[in-house]
Amino acid sequence: MSKVVLVILDGLEYSTAQQCMGGLLALCNANMGKIYKMKSELPSISRPLYECILTGVKPALSGILNNYCKPFSSNKSIFEYAKLANLKAGAAAYYWISELYNKTLFDRVKDRIIINEQSLNIPYGIFYYEDDYNDSHLFSDAECLRVKFDLDFTLFHSMNIDDIGHKFSHDSKEYRNAARKVDTILSSLVLKWLEEGVNVIITSDHGMNNDGTHGGNLDIERDVAFFVFGDKFSFARVEVEQSGICGLVCEILGVDHDKSFAKELLK
């Protein structure tokens, strides 16, 4: 069993990660991690892909095919698998994560900060509801939960890259600089996590097109980075799938699960 951090950088397209995430790439070049190119599932939009990442169920099978489809998830998520194994799991994330796995209708007062609420799938959480909620605050929120409550699995979910992409489009200095800002925050955190023996996955739900949207089949809408860091990973050349993230995390956590994943990714 190893503790796991999963970072979802909403809206970060693969080539932008390759061009702008210099800190993370430096760690990869030092053989401390590896970056893979991963194709997001369709449609390349957020709520369906949150469900795919966290449960391993593709949108066509989950029935969540757009951002306006708001059912409570009917599939077991990483959070539930961790809970069944008596592990501590938490998230600092956009409120749609709360709606999928805690409560269908998000209450900005009652549901924003969750501390040791064991009746919920995510018993430790800080959920935000503005797309421009500052990434520096988001990463502090999640790291506070992880450290203060000694979490075994922590989801960090930031929205600034996606928000800036919608405002300025993919091919813009603003979009690239949003990625650079996150890289500055993350590169230091990853070193800290590795020193603590935590295994780390950093990826995105989808990319961004030059219309400032996403949802379709263009490469820039679907190609995302998949970074891995930690002593559980083999760094082998292997094709990675978005629907395999849930099973991969569960395997590293050492919990019983029935999800598929690329076994070659692990030692």
UniProtKB/TrEMBL annotation:
Domain of life: Bacteria
Alphabetized PANTHER family for the sequence: BIS(5'-ADENOSYL)-TRIPHOSPHATASE, ECTONUCLEOTIDE PYROPHOSPHATASE/PHOSPHODIESTERASE
Transmembrane feature ranges: none
Molecular functions per Gene Ontology: hydrolase activity
Protein name: Alkaline phosphatase family protein
Pfam families: Phosphodiest (PF01663)
